[in-house]
Protein 1
Amino acid sequence: MNIDLTGTSTRKIQDALTQARHLMGGPAVGMVLTLIIVTDESAQYDAVRAATEAAREHPCRVLTVISRDARGSSSRLDAEIRMGETGPGETVLLRMYGPLAEHADSVVVPLLMPDTPVVTWWPGGKVPKAPAQDPLGRLAARRVTDAYAARDRLGTLSRLAEGYQPGDTDFSWTRVTSWRSLLAAALDQDHAEITGGSVSAEPDSPSAELLAAWLAVRLGVKVGREVSDGPGITGVTLRTGEGDIVVLRPDGRVATLSRPGQPDRQVALHRRPMSELLAEELRRLDPDEVYQDAATRFAKDLAGENAREESREQEAQASAPARKAASRSRKKEDGS
């Protein structure tokens, strides 16, 4: 069932939801949470589709906030209600025009499911610096971002780490769950002391940076980054005195686990779609301290690298006049 409401209000949307449930004979008590999606018109289709698929595992009310023409002088709210077509949940697309787009929380609050948790998700590249301080983020117990969708991926991840609050997470971290599980299982077996490691992935991969930071924190060794052609993360190498423990995934589907003195093993390690990532995040609403540790370590390492690069640039600038003077002196000597 689809219901379109133009120039509407939250009261009319609530009435339409109630009427639709009565017509379909479906009570709202089965909803376990409210999912708020903050996106734009170009990204809303994929985001709503992923949320609809995740709602099969987590029945929820999906409120999709879409800002349209925020610079307009007149405010207007259009709503599109979808129920019963592809899943057990309810989906409401809220298109806000004019100054109303700057106060989306005032529209969303009356539509929240009573006595259920709230999750806010920013699927696109417009990620707030501190999700917990965002008006829609303050409504949520869990706040999900995706640094990979941002233009400056590593800078965005660093800013998210600096503004971290309990309940924050990022799809860049969710994407490495399978890698972390495989590596943890491999290290549960007897092995020599690990002295270092590296993670290979495509350039500017937030997931690879978080995986390297997690390994560094947990193993207490330096884990470097190597650039590959992708897709995504292509390999992890852990160095030991007896040989390397290596996981290679060149095709984004099947990985090969190699250990010293043991035959190679093939392991399914496919790149997961957005719906699976979202469903995983909706399974837990408690703070993710492991993500916090990894993100904090990455931000610290990135800040140190930037400071060293800035110091090298300052040294180069300071020594430039001396090099020029020496060059002029050599030219005079050659002329004499």
Protein 2
Amino acid sequence: MRAGQPEEEGKIFVEAEGREGTKRQLIERVAIVGAGTMGSGIAQVFAEAGVAVTLVDAAPTALQWAMAAMERNWSRSVEKSKRTPAEVDSARSRIALAHDIAAVGEADMVIEAVFEDVATKQGVLRDVDRVAAPEALLATNTSSISITQLAAATERPGRVIGMHFFNPVPVMPLVEVVRGLLTQAETVARVLACVTRLGKTPVEVHDFPGFVSNRVLLPMINEAIFCLQEGVADKDAIDAVMRLGMAHPMGPLALADLIGLDVCLNILDVLQRELGEDKYRPAPLLRKMVAAGKLGRKSGEGFFLYEG
């Protein structure tokens, strides 16, 4: 099985060689459930790649926010001469908004991008499974939860896969493609080809809590929070050490604010519960900040203050 190149705009192909010759399957319609930061970013990159996108969220304000976020991104792209106004108009025209989950019924692939919570994601995937086309792929943008566990909520576990995009989606080049225990090889091949078509770099990993990215990243962020809590250094000093001494583009506390402190806490809880090791225990300061509503950039305050 090998990934093929798209032959026409808006269609993502994969070639599968079998006894009856080569069969081409395509992804030309994608639905995304969840219009938050990740869902809107994923919708934007698919639309820019020429793929028809339906963005679904039950909350009208969420859809309005998502479109406003995309418009801000496109405006900056035009200002920096990365895209022309005509390219932006073309991408915008490919995005449809919907409040009803039934709108995913025509999609070749549905991507779940809701909050990082097992029960919430299972509920969405269960609902999507009932209304999606029988041959449609179901992907989850989870950053830590078992793909096998989420796939078990559906009647098509072989067509369920993880597509872990990184924030901000239009900028970050990596997508972790996560194969669950029952994910079919054909599903993996189609998604790898899809990610490449988006101009991203797919990296295939297996289904372990936190995958590679967050199993390595979150303990570092958590330890930085412990350093702040214990008075080892102040927040600026901690971030400066990692930026200037370790060549990180962003300090761990600023990165936690970007990810969302509530998301960081949920990922650490998953890692501790699933791997059973105390090294993943969330810092008490992190729990306090989440309880206080200081979630990072999205709330205007986390370890640092943000305007607008």
Protein 3
Amino acid sequence: MTKKKSGFLTFIFSWIPGAGQMYMGFMRMGVSLMGLFWGILALSIFFNTGFLMLIDVVVWFYSFFHAHNLRAMDDEDFYALEDHYLIRIDTDSEFWSKVTIEKYRRLFAGILIVFGIAVLWNSILDLVYWIVPDYVWSYVNHISRFVPQLVLGIGIIAIGIFLIRGKKQELLEEDRGEDHAGETDHSHS
């Protein structure tokens, strides 16, 4: 059972994203926030992109104030609060669990692919370091720093194009549906 803890220790632990929630017994919530924070930090370091750190700042502030809001809740609301992950998966319903798994399957697959590419990229660079002479390595090293950013930029553009096409396709299908409904109404007159 989750119970309120020391205000001072909650304050200390809340400086680490997710730790304040975990200290108060909300393990799923805390692990989600901690994983999100450190995952974004790792991606930011790997892709050498500072703008991802802006997202991490928001996650940090959310986690900090969320822990304090949990601590400040009245006892009845605090004890009634359920511990859940940031991404909720409804495992009680067979239908919803299938929908949720399908929904996040592609996201999880994409994360695994990016992680695999990162591991391969670092391994290949380590191998090249031992094979090529030092003067060639300096060129390869400079170029290799920009490749992850280039790939990330292309990925973001591709996702944007995909989202625009998807919305455009939705609008076209809605227009077609309205046209067919209008034709049906005129044929009955």
Protein 4
Amino acid sequence: MRAVGCCTWIFGGEPLEAVAERVRRAGLDGVELHGDMAGIDPAAARTIFRDCGLRIFSITPGDADISHPDPALRAEALGYYTRLVDWAAELGRGAELPRVSCHGQVTRIRPVSSQAEEDALLVGSVRQIAAKAAGRGLEVVFEILNRYESHQVRTVAEGLALLEAVGAENLALLPDAYHMNIEEADPAAALRAGGARIGLYHAADSNRGAVGDGHTDFAAQISALDAIGYDGPIILEPAAPGPDPFNTDKGAGFRDVLEAQLARSATALRALGT
């Protein structure tokens, strides 16, 4: 069966010890750790999750505008990823090394210069990130977002085109059931089209709730993952109900809501054979 994990950023800065306990209680196998390099010591994080019987599967990056036409802003973003890769390499050993996720600046939904120029800049930046990661023995996954969060790479087809343009062996795609619900006419078919180029998979239902809370056909998506031989983890990324999709804190008790969502999601996915 595939492992099930969750993104840690959803808990809004709760201490890692408390996050690890929540994830363990929810019955998950590990986490996608937020790339908070200033606030998280890699050795301490590794110990905290290991002591709860959990793995660190992958890394969620902070926002960094890797396709901005301003060279200074782009250099700053690439500097962030250089540091993130080095930080990530300290979180695991050998087969336990986490995948590093990357994407553009979330909420930048239109080009500053032109789509063509910024698409070319994205290719160059991702190529540099992948090369840096390869030097540390790390795999990279490019997360596919939706039109309300990014103006670049919103479908698996666009993601495959990016992979071809970058040409890095350690680069794969990260599709997300929530984003695919918006962008893909047939999410399961998109996963099948991605095939072996799918390196990681995120799950939240159509309303960003727990698996089963919305109308996403997860049975079809799990079947597609089976068909392409995807054996990596499923990373849950729900949000508690409430406004402002970019702020995980929905008010008193939101972390308890999230923990319950994770537990329900893990149960639902395992019932589907994950």
